[in-house]
Amino acid sequence: MEALDYHAEERRKAEFDVEEMKIAWAGSRQAYEISDRVSRLVASDPVFRKDNRTMLSRKELFNDTLKKAAHAWKRVIELRLSEEEAGKLRFFVDQPAFSDLHWGMFIPAIKGSGTEEQKAKWLPMAYKMQIIGCYAQTELGHGSNVQGLETTATFDPHTDEFVLHSPTLTSSKWWPGGLGKVATHAVAYARLITNGQDHGVHGFIVQLRSLDDHLPLPGITVGDIGMKFGSGAYNSMDNGLLRFDHVRIPRDQMLMGVSQVTREGKYMQSDVPRQLVYGTMVYVRQKIVADASSALSRAVCIATRYSAVRRQFGSQNGGPETQVIDYKTQQSRLFPLLASAYAFRFVGEWLKWLYTDVTQRLHANDFSTLPEVHACTAGLKSITTSATADAIEECRKLCGGHGYLSSSGLPELFAVYIPACTYEGDNTVLLLQVGRFLMKTVFQLGSGKKPVGTIAYMGRAEHLLQCHCEVQRAEDWLKPHIIVEAFEARSARMAVACSKNINKFPKQEDGFAELSADLAEAAVAHCQLIVVSKFIEKLQQDIPGKGVKRQLEILCSVYALSLLHKHLGDFVASGCITPEQGALANEQLRLLYSQVRPNAIALVDAFNYTDHYLGSILGRYDGNVYPKLYEEAWKDPLNETVVPDGYHEYIRPILKQHIRVARL
Ligand SMILES: Cc1cc2nc3c(=O)[nH]c(=O)nc-3n(C[C@H](O)[C@H](O)[C@H](O)COP(=O)(O)OP(=O)(O)OC[C@H]3O[C@@H](n4cnc5c(N)ncnc54)[C@H](O)[C@@H]3O)c2cc1C
Prior knowledge:
With 664 residues, this protein is of the alpha+beta class. It has 23 helices and eleven strands.
């Protein structure tokens, strides 16, 4: 019997080769094959089941996470999975766990800031999970302001040890994932003090719990910080608190890749340049951007498939009602998000390349691109995570009432995803860093120092400040050079306007403070330009498969023009385009939506997500939504009894009361 597929008709409409698009999405055939194999492996394993997750209590959920993490590790060993495959396995298990921090932060921190001896000592144990690590930086009193951290690590020359101490309540470590209940070790950040002198914040490897009975070591107070946003969701993670009471660690447990403390307590910068730690930061941020495209594509996949199943109004002569995906408003809300998912995917791919490039440069003592790389990765982390968080909520609304059901998968996805706007740098704080970088670039124009990489366009500021957009007809907006110039001009003009306003202040710092909201907007403009440019660059590559490149060109135009439409005020106010050209962009956008429409289902199929990973009845591959929603409702614990518990205690007495209510 042929499998039921309510989307079959939609799939037949596709004008491109979906299998080839899957490869374009994955980045390469090999990446596609790994992802496909591992996702199916996870989906078919009953231990990784997650459909009952939102019903679990905190303790049950945490236990379930431990079970899954242990099983995942067992499978990694049994199947001899490579690092890439193991990473994919954790990704598809799709449950925040201590192991994310172990692999994602603890190991990279040692790799990035440890000496060769430290790496040789700690990494093999960490790779075998004989120790489990977390990344303990944030404190109760300070997160963004790392220099404000209060934990101290004081060198004791008598014993050749550091004494870690939490001098105040606000110095308690607060938030680190995996710290609460699992981690045996931490890379903990503390102010380094030698001979009474404070050298600022440094990283230390600290054992927290016994490797025999898991009890905290003497002087260590550790626990979980409590429930977080939403039920289920991120509560599978044991974000923790930690206090040190004069905890002693050997001197060689300070991460000494960049600076060192000698046996005599002398503080020294090592020969290795400080900038090397930036490599780790680029690594972590490119991962976050890749995760943004995953979360966004997942939400969009759910909303797109459901929009094709859902019908409201418009029945003629007793025929079927209109699929909500055919409403122009639905398309204008949904298709820019679909385009953003692809845009973030490709900019994430480029960031992977950037990581390799920056690592090679750092090892060759070439630091010339660092400030630009730092600003670019900070900004991309900020705009992709903010856009994704907003997009998941928009997808929930696009699914109407059923989007609010847990079984749509969207509430949990939202709750799990949104802290990405905060961790690894609060998004506004990051934009302000980009803003400062933009100002520095503008102030240096004319000094002979040439802007490089993603900021190179500022070298043409003179032209960009007075160029006129060539668009005369709607289709002119499909020309990549016109789009790029409009985005460059907007970014350059907003940055230069900020710099002029800052210069009006007698003290530049006052100007920065007063204009910080404008700076953040200029930073957004710069970062959106990067995403648009990288999408366009991607299209200059050879992309095989019937119609694949054509679809990506359409999506690229949708991404750029929907941003232009959303930020029309910026484009028009800064004089980059006229209001009439803005209207033409909108006209073109409407035409593009019609071109996306027949391909919409196939474009989300190309993400190649299993129903297990999607975790959504609305997003099911076969579109069999209503019977499954109905079935799912009956699984709710409230439906275990026909008459609810508490009926006799609370409902019946109200119904049977004999008092007279005065008003009646
Ligand atoms: C789910 C989750 C997991 C986490 N995991 C870890 C972990 O594993 N390890 C770890 O060490 N930490 C972790 N953290 C902590 C996280 O890194 C910090 O919360 C984050 O860096 C933000 O810092 P904050 O909490 O101090 O925010 P704050 O800086 O207090 O932000 C509060 C507000 O102030 C604004 N603000 C702050 N400074 C400025 C400024 N200069 N100018 C303008 N506005 C400003 C922000 O934009 C924000 O609106 C985690 C947090 C979460 C939510």
